[in-house]
Specification:
Number of domains: 2
Order of helices and strands: HHHHHHHHHHHEEHEEEEEEEEEEE
Number of helices: 12
CATH architecture of the largest domain: Alpha/alpha barrel
CATH topology of the largest domain: Glycosyltransferase
Strand order of the largest sheet: 5-6-7-13-9-10
CATH class of the largest domain: Mainly Alpha
Distance between the termini: 41 Å
Shape: globular
Oligomer: single chain
Amino acid sequence: MGDAQVFVRTATCNADVAAFFTKWLVDVNDGQSSDGAYFDVSPATTGNHGTPAWADAGVICPWTIYLAYGDRRLLEKHLPSMIKWIEWCRVHSTNLIRDKDRGGDYADWLSQGTDTPKDVIGTAYFAYSTRLVAKACKVLGKHEEAAKYEALFQEIKAAFNKRYVAADGRIADNTQCVYAMALKFELLSEALKPKAAQYLEDDIKAKGWHLSTGFVGVSYLLSVLTESGKTDTAYKLLLEDTFPSWLFSVRHGATTIWERWDGWTPDRGFQDPGMNSFNHYSLGSCGEWLFNSLAGIAFDPELPTYKHIICKPHPGDGITWANASYESIHGMIASSWKNESGRFAWSVAIPANTTATIYVPAQNAAGVTESGKPTAQVEGVKFLRMENGAAVYAVGSGIYRFQSTLSAAIK
């Protein structure tokens, strides 16, 4: 369950997993306890249940599959069990803080050299799952329930801030995981978000541009850095090849994702053979960022199934080209860009019966061309604004070829 919710968004980028998750989520519901707790494994084969970040898969997975494939029936079927889980968390909390550790919680599983408190993780996920339930209720037209669970989210958020967040934005135990969760789950005020992002970057820098988070924070790390305007740090993390890092295993011959950052190291050799898979997937959840932020293919959560596409690549130091495609239910979406000494060339394909918001990295809109013409002269390419170093356009279906000059910072 924990592995599934960590990887589900990356899974939807790599393959058509609608049928698999539709079936598997039936197993998840079947295994739910009568009082609302999900088990750590589905089909339920263990006695451990109600584990933060693991049990939350019962909410995160159906919501993510809905966003990717637009099947409202999935939400209709699973919303009652999703609500039961939220109510279980409410009962098993103290003033909305998930501090009732039953001894089986895994914390930030397989983190390196840091320990994120279990109650911080539990409370953060309680908030996140609650907000997703509110969103699911809204999609299904259950507006009273949506308002109820949005209000509960705000109460949990307030409890989280009161217990764990200092006035200067520091969060309990100051780990990469806590900042990644707080930013991803929207648990901070607008004033504290940039401060938290800076603490996260500071920790990464202090560790020699290495990550330290385990399963819980890993899938959010690159995304929250990019969304906080720290794409350069995301690139440094992605391209680091000394331990611990994504490319450390690749440098040592891996062709599949390891379960543990330290599955093998030169100084210690192999980890415990009782749990040391070399063909896992959770730490490969950075694939979501590769599609969404590196290549620039993402869906609009307000218009799921890629009916409206967010095309927003983030070029950076160390990578000079990217090429990605996604077979959506509307057709192929493709993005291919090159950065040649600050000259950015980007081909993007938008399928029929969809629209897209295109973010062209550029110094200014005047220097952006499409198929060799200034964008102001191209029918169907509507300039919207300049935003954070990108010229933003609204387009319909078609194949577009943009060129621009990048800012000096990312040449």
